[in-house]
Each structure stands twice: as structure tokens, then as C-alpha cells.
Amino acid sequence: MSSQTTQFTRQPTDTGSAPEALQQRSRAQRSRNRVRTTALFVIFFAVFIVVWHLATVGFDDGGLAPTPGATWDRLLEMLSDAFLLDGPNNVGIFYHLLASIQRVLLGFGLAALIAVPLGLLLGTSRVINDGLDPFIQVLRPVSPLAWLPLGLALLRDSQMTAIFVIFMAAIWPILISTIDGVRRVNPLFLDLARSLETDTKTRVLKVLLPATLPAIVIGLRTALSTAWLVIVAAEMIVGGRGMGHFVWNEWNALNTPSIVVAIVIIGGVGFLLDRSIAQLQRLVPKS
Amino acid sequence: MSQTITAPHAAEPTAPEPVVKIEGITKGFPDRKKGFQPIVGLTDVDIQEGEFITIIGPSGCGKSTILKMIAGLESADEGSIRLAGKPIDAPSRELGIVFQQHVLLPWMSARQNVLFALETDPHNTRSKSQLESLADEYLELVNLSHAADRRPAQLSGGMQQRVGIARAFALEPKVMLLDEPLGALDALTRHELQLQLLELCEQQKRTFIMVTHDVDEALLLSDRILVMGTGPRAQIVHDIAVPFSRPRDVENLEQDPKCHELRGFLLNSLTGH
Prior knowledge:
The complex is a heterodimer of chains A (287) and B (273).
Chain A (H helix, E strand, L loop, with lengths): L17 H39 L11 H13 L12 H32 L1 H14 L8 H8 L2 H27 L2 H9 L4 H39 L4 H10 L3 H28 L4
Helix pairs in contact in A: 2-10, 3-4, 3-6, 3-8, 3-9, 5-6, 6-8, 8-9, 8-10, 9-10
Chain B lengths: L19 E12 L3 E13 L4 E5 L6 H9 L6 E6 L2 E2 L7 E4 L11 H10 L8 H14 L15 H14 L4 E5 L7 H17 L3 E6 L2 H7 L2 E5 L7 E6 L8 H6 L1 H15 L2
Parallel strand pairs in B: 3-8, 3-9, 6-7, 7-8
Antiparallel strand pairs in B: 1-2, 1-4, 4-5, 9-10
Helix pairs in contact in B: 2-3, 2-4, 3-4
């Protein structure tokens, strides 16, 4: 600011130490809260294990109910055999996980490559959008699994079919979020771009895309978590390697503790995938 | 003689050709409930090179719409607007716009925002480093050198608007269009920026067209004030020459009885008495 506003000067105060004390107090408050949260988590976890144990022990079902003890043993076993590769029927959990992640990332990546440019186009052009919107509205609510038999019939390849199903699961959230994002771009940004006589390429890449990026990242995040939900079900059907196939296989072997371990792993990996894309969200400046 | 192309004012060589010539424009908007709503009635204005013109009027009279039409962002329903003889049918870099709210791209720093306006020039022949120093020059002009690397979100409202002003000046446009440039600012910042704008426009000889609803702002800055009536079909009801010599000084202006008289007249015509 220029010198004209400096006529109001603040009186010096001798409370220079006050902010320091306040900071200390808030820091102490934060660490107290963290201790409480951790303690609560430990208590809940213990209660959960006890209830689980009581609910499964002595349950007369021929040993189908997974007890905490059996599950723990199975977990250790699976972790020690994680990298096992001994014939098609004896594959470590790591390779199942890897196969699932690969399919998800491939299908998701393809969906993003198509949905982002398409969304930018549909968001800008009212005419094209109005023509395509009925297709989007009807196809979007269809469970991606409904596409699976069609994929098998046309692609004749289980791996490709799984990726295709993930693609169908991931494309809608990205497409819809991108279209919505384009519509919400400050119209004055576009006026500015026009008044600078920018060409279409500059307008799309330097103004529209960066301004839509926050919405695109939200779409990507939704799409990735949807894809991770769908992959387990898809793999139960297409077989091969993968977490879904593993779960179904263990059910066929009546090995329920493995299923519990697999559920925890699927949840943990899903959480990590979501976290990593949330990091992307932080990098994008809000408009 | 039957000519298809005639230079405007060819018959009267004594009158200088206006930079902006507005002839008989009208504008309305379709309204779903009420049908077609006429906003701007027949309007004619000639704006001479180097003039600072202010369009003032009650809210809703379409003064911002007129500015948008001059900017080429909206088209008039009837009539024509010419910039140096050529009709304005699309936005152009010869018209530098300062918007009411700051329109800075939030993912760019202040310097990058000014630089973006320079780099997008299709006829640019300068090197990147030349453009950079030019951007810095214009930020210096609005006393923002110290904040050049900050993002818009890290700037105060007044600073954001100054970046917008620097960007418009950086285009070196024929005409500067100011759409209530200080309207969204608090009173103190507003006053400070009015003085800065006064200094800038006296220093950088350009043609300015400003829209405002602030009578004092109009009197301080303009050579001519166009008062618009109330809508619908609002028209220019007064065209007032502001008689104060330049460079102007707020204090002298405040003591000038002519200024009081004009101020009273403007306020009266705005409130419709």
C-alpha cells in the first residue's frame, strides 16, 4: 500500500510474550487431543476383538465363522507367503493385489484420458451437450458389472474385460464432474480470454483447464474409489489373478479367515489410493 | 457520387475523428417471464482521443451493458459502435478492460497475470525476458513491485484491482474501459485508488471510458460525464463537460464552488428530481 494509509499507527504494546504463551497452550491442547484419540481407538479396537471373539467362538457351524485367533494366524501365513509364485493356483497375496491395482489404474487412466477432454467439450458446447446428455443420463445409473458379459463376448479376453468394466465404472464421475466444473468457471475469465484475443488452444489449456482442475480432481477421486469398489466384484467373475478372484477362491475352499484378511487389505489399499489422489487435490489451487 | 465506403466525417475536416463513435445503439435481453426487456434506449456518443469519459446512472440503467458493448463482449441490437472508424464486432486488445471484480487467474502470481496478457498477443515480437520486464514495469506503475510474486488470494482487494489495472495498461490499448473498477472496495482503499488512478490517467495519456455510480469519483477523474436516465430504454439525459483544469488536486476540487454545484446537479439528476 502507498504511504497514504499509514497515518493510523498501532500503539506499541508490551505483550510480546502473549502470542508465545498462546501458541504453547494450543500446542498442548492438540497433543492432549491426540492422546485421547489414540486411547479411544485402542479401547474400541479391544472391545471389537472381544465381541468378535465371543460371537464366533463356540458358534456351531463346522468352523466356518472366522475367529480373531484363526484370522491372525492366517494373516501371518499370508504375509509370509505374500510373494509366492508356485503354479497358477498358488499365488501370493501380493500378486493378487498387484493384478487388481493394475486393472484399476489402467481402466481408470483410460477413462480419465477420454472423460476429461470430452467433459471440456461438453461443458463448453451447449449443442453437443444437449445431444449427448440423454446417453449419459441413461448409461450412468447402469452398474458397470452389467457390461461384463458384453465385454467377454466382444473382447474375448478376461483381462481386457476387467479393464473395460473399470473403464465403464470410472468414466461417469470424471465426465460429469468435468462438465459441471466447466460450467462453474467464472464467466469473466472467459470474457478476459476473449478480450485478450486468445486462440482456442490458449483459451482451453491456459484458462479453462486450470480453472476446471479442482472439479476434475474431485471427479477423479470419486472415480478411483468407485473403480476400487467394482474391481473385486468383476474379478470374482472373470477369474485369473486379483483380490476378487482370491476372495471367491477362498470361499470355495471354505477358508473364511482368508476372506477377513482380504477385506482388511482391500480396505487399506482403497484408503491409500484415496489418500494419494487427495494429495493431488492439495496441489491444485482453488479458483 | 455513389460511394460504398466513405470515411466518417469526411465532409467536415475540422472536427477530429472520434476514437469511439456510438450511433443509435439499443440493447435488451429476453426474459422468460416478462418477454423481451429493453435495457438501453437509443444512445449516441462521440468520444475524442485522450478524453476521460464517465457514464454515470442509477443501478439497472444499463451503463455496464453499454461498456460491455464497447468492449465487444456483447453486441448491440441496433446501431453501431466504431473504434477509430472500424466497427467493433468482437473483443479486441485495443480495448483494455478493468472489470468490477478482479478477474485475475488464481493459479498465477500477479506478475504471471500481467505477463499472460502480454504473451497472448498474436503480434508479439518481443522476447520472453522483454515481456517479463515490461510486466514488472506496469506492476511498478501501480506500486505493486513488492507483491509481484503473490497469488491473487494473497493480495488485498485493492491490490487485486491494481493488478487488473496494470494488466489493462500493459496492453497499451487505444481505449481503457473501466467497469466500476473501484466499486467492490472499502471506502478507504477506494479513496486511495481514486487518487492513484487520477495520477495514472494524467500521466499515461489515453482515452478512458469509465462506468461508476460514484459522483465524486466521476468529478475527480473525468473530462466529460454522461448521465443516464432510469430504464427501461434508458438514454443519456445529460452530457456534462467537467471544467476543472489538470493536473487536478482533491483539496482544490473540494473547495471549488463549481464542483459543489456540479455535484448537487449530478446527485439531483441521478435521484430523478
